[in-house]
Design a protein that fits this description.
This protein has 21 helices and no strands. It is mainly alpha-helical.
Length: 419
C-alpha cells in the first residue's frame, strides 16, 4: 500500500512541482509564510519575518515543519527546484506512510478486511494525493502524526508500559509543534484511555502523569519563546484574531479572504511593519472581538456556512462549474465522501463496535477551530484518515447488507418453488 501510494504521488509530483517554482513575488507560492520564515532561519535571522519584508520575530506559524523546510533549504538551496522536489517528496512520503496507521486503526476497530480496504482507499484517496503536491505546508505531516496519535490512543488502553506512555507524550508534543489545532482532541482521547483502564480496575494515573510531563517538556520551550517575543503569554500561535478576520470580513465570496493578510495587502503590510507583530496581532484580536460583538448573527451564519463547507465543499449556491474547491465536481465528490463516512459511522454505532469513540472524537472536536475562523479543504485533511476508515466500513456494511438481501430473496424464491 505504501509503495503504491508513494509511486502514484510521485508521478503526480512530476507534473505539478513546477507550480512551486513561480518566481513571482519572490517565490511567494513556495511555502508562503512557511517558506519566508524558513529562509530567515537559513540566512541567520532566526524565526522571523513570515512575509516578504522584515517584521521581526513571529508566532504566526508553528515551528516543526518550518524547521524541516529550513533544513531542506540548507541542503538544496533557497527556493530552488531541488528544494521543491525534496519538500514535495517528503510531503508524499508522509502521505504514503499514513497508510500504516489507517490500516492498523481499521484493523483494531473493524477487523482485517476493513483494514485492507481502508489502506487501499487511502493509497488512492484523491485529496491525499492532491494535497501532498499542491502546497508546501504542514498538512501531510500533521495528518500522519495525528493518525499515529489516534492509533497510539487505541493501543494504550491495554498497557501501562512507561516507555509507551512517554512515547505518547512525545508524539503529542511533536504533533502540537506541527499544528496546535490537534490539541483540541487530546483531553478527550486521554480521558477515554483513562476510563478504559479504570473500568478494568487498573490505575494508569502514574504513567499518564509521566506522559503529560514529557508532553509539556516538548512544548514548553516554544511557548516560552513565543511569550517572550510578544511580551505576554502566547500558547503556540498569536494570530487568532487575524484568522477570525480572514473568514469573517466583508468579502465572503470565498471561505477565506486572504486579502486581509499582510502578505496579500500592502496597507496591512505597512501597518504590521509600523506596529510590530505583537501590537499588530493584539489589534487584530480586538478587531475580531468587536466584529463578532457588533454582528453576532452574521458570525453565527458564517460559522454554520463554514461547517457545511467543511463536509461538502459547498460555499456558493448553486455551485459553479469549475475545478476549484467550490466547483460542482469537488462539491459532489466531497459530499459523497462525507456521506459515506457518516453512513459507516452509523453502522459502527449500530453494530456497537468497540473502540469507535477515539475515532468519533476527532470528527467532532478537530474541525470547530476552522468553523469559527476560516475553512479550506486542506484544513480538514488531518481527520481524513478517520473519514476513510468509516468509508471503508460503510462499503463493507453495504456489501454485507446486499448479500443478506440476496440470500433472503433466494430463500423466498426457494420457498415459493416448494409451495
Amino acid at each position: 500500500m505504501v509503495i503504491a501510494a508513494l509511486a502514484l504521488r510521485l508521478v503526480v509530483m512530476g507534473f505539478v512541482y513546477t507550480d512551486r517554482l513561480d518566481p513571482a513575488r519572490d517565490h511567494w507560492t513556495f511555502g508562503w509564510e512557511t517558506g519566508r520564515v524558513a529562509r530567515s532561519i537559513v540566512t541567520g535571522k532566526g524565526f522571523t519575518s513570515p512575509y516578504s519584508e522584515p517584521t521581526g520575530p513571529t508566532t504566526l506559524i508553528p515551528p516543526a515543519y518550518t524547521y524541516l523546510v529550513a533544513g531542506i533549504f540548507k541542503l538544496f538551496g533557497i527556493y530552488t527546484p531541488s528544494s521543491a522536489l525534496a519538500m514535495l517528496t517528503l510531503n508524499n512520503l508522509f502521505s504514503s506512510l499514513t497508510c500504516l496507521p489507517v490500516f492498523f486503526i481499521a484493523r483494531r476497530v473493524f477487523g482485517p478486511y476493513a483494514a485492507v480496504c481502508s489502506g487501499w482507499i487511502w493509497a488512492f484517496f484523491p485529496y491525499a494525493v492532491t494535497l501532498a503536491n499542491v502546497t508546501i505546508w504542514e498538512t501531510t505531516l500533521t495528518t500522519l502524526l495525528f493518525s499515529l496519535a489516534v492509533l497510539a490512543t487505541l493501543s494504550l488502553e491495554r498497557t501501562t508500559s512507561l516507555g509507551a506512555w512517554m512515547g505518547y507524550g512525545a508524539l503529542w508534543g511533536l504533533a502540537a509543534l506541527t499544528n496546535p489545532a490537534v490539541l483540541s482532541t487530546l483531553p478527550f482521547l486521554g480521558a477515554w484511555v483513562w476510563l478504559r483502564h479504570w473500568r478494568r480496575g487498573e490505575n494508569c494515573t502514574r504513567v499518564a502523569v509521566v506522559a503529560s510531563l514529557v508532553f509539556f517538556a516538548a512544548i514548553a520551550p516554544w511557548i516560552w519563546r513565543c511569550s517572550r517575543a510578544y511580551g505576554r503569554f502566547v500558547a503556540f500561535r498569536g494570530s487568532l484574531g487575524l484568522e477570525v478576520l480572514v473568514g469573517n470580513s466583508d468579502d465572503t465570496s470565498s471561505p477565506s479572504n486572504w486579502k486581509v493578510l499582510p502578505g496579500e495587502n500592502p496597507v496591512e503590510m505597512r501597518k504590521l511593519k509600523s506596529l510590530g507583530e505583537p501590537v499588530y496581532m493584539a489589534e487584530k484580536q480586538r478587531e475580531a472581538s468587536e466584529l463578532i460583538a457588533r454582528r453576532p448573527l452574521r458570525f453565527v451564519g458564517l460559522t454554520l456556512r463554514r461547517t457545511l463547507y467543511t463536509w461538502t465543499g459547498l460555499w456558493d449556491f448553486p455551485p459553479r462549474w469549475s475545478l476549484d474547491d467550490s466547483g460542482l465536481p469537488n462539491v459532489l465528490t466531497y459530499t459523497f465522501v462525507s456521506l459515506l463516512a457518516f453512513a459507516g459511522l452509523g453502522w459502527a454505532i449500530h453494530d456497537r463496535r468497540d473502540g469507535i469513540i477515539p475515532l468519533v472524537i476527532p470528527l467532532i472536536c478537530f474541525p470547530p477551530a476552522y468553523y469559527l475562523t476560516h475553512s479550506d479543504i486542506r484544513f480538514r485533511h488531518p481527520i481524513d484518515p478517520i473519514v476513510v476508515v468509516f468509508m471503508a466500513y460503510a462499503v463493507i456494511a453495504l456489501r454485507e447488507q446486499k448479500f443478506r438481501l440476496s440470500g433472503q430473496l433466494n430463500n423466498l424464491q426457494h420457498s415459493e418453488r416448494i409451495s
